[in-house]
Design a protein that fits this description.
The complex is a heterodimer. By secondary structure, chain A is an all-beta fold. Chain A is 0% helix and 50% strand. The radius of gyration of chain B is 13 Å and the shape is globular. Classes of the chains: A mainly beta, B mainly beta.
């Protein structure tokens, strides 16, 4: 089974900051990596698919990069609505989520 | 509009069974794979099962293999999850999701809570 490890597990930042979240796969997954945002009590929302493709309707301040085993999600300028938990997910061999990164207001 | 609506959650005793449903609307349900994903209270997301668009293939997480069965009725635009031999660790919000875009889970339901407790 493919394991996904996110870092950090939690992060404090301010509005306007640039933030990067990292996701590492236990083996190469090519570009089969997706990113989701989840707010409390809500279903997850797809942000980025295939490592770097922006889902329709998602603001351009969100971007993804990487391939193989190492991936990043970057938020270029944090907005108040971006404080949430973020999950990576591999879809190379069935599906596995990372443990999540909680982004909190500093 | 595109929508998934889960139902069937509730409180159930350990060892008993429960069937969840997920009603789809606003897209061609019969053309896409469907998934169940769960989230235990205060925990992260766990993929549970997938079924191909035509029901020809089904795959499960090791944690539910042999106890849960995913199925679909394309004539009713409905996805199911039959959960047998339930355990306390199956307590979670269960989401259905679809990969209409072909890459990731781009449509999600609102979730239904399952509590396994005596």
């Amino acid at each position: 089974d493919i394991q996904m490890t996110q870092s950090p597990s939690s992060l404090s930042a301010s509005v306007g900051d640039r933030v990067t979240i990292t996701c590492r796969a236990s083996q190469s997954i090519s570009s089969y990596l997706n990113w989701y945002q989840q707010k409390p009590g809500k279903a997850p929302k797809l942000l980025i698919y295939a490592a770097s493709s922006l889902q329709s309707g998602v603001p351009s301040r969100f971007s993804g990069s990487g391939s193989g085993t190492d991936f990043t999600l970057t938020i270029s300028s944090l907005q108040p609505e971006d404080f949430a938990t973020y999950y990576c997910q591999q879809s190379y061999s069935l599906y596995t989520f990372g443990q999540g990164t909680k982004l909190e207001i500093k | 509009q595109v929508q998934l609506v889960e139902s069937g959650g509730g409180v159930v005793q350990p060892g008993r069974s429960l069937r969840l449903s997920c009603a789809a609307s606003g897209f061609t349900f019969s053309s896409y794979g469907m998934h169940w994903v769960r989230q235990a209270p205060g925990k992260g997301l766990e993929w549970v099962a997938v079924i191909w668009y035509d029901g020809s293939n089904k795959y499960y997480a090791d944690s539910v293999k042999g106890r849960f069965t995913i199925s679909r009725d394309n004539s009713k635009n409905t996805l199911y999850l039959q959960m047998n031999s339930l355990r306390a660790e199956d307590t979670a919000v269960y989401y259905c999701a679809s990969d209409v875009g072909g890459y990731a889970f781009d449509i999600w339901g609102q979730g239904t809570m399952v509590t396994v407790s005596s």
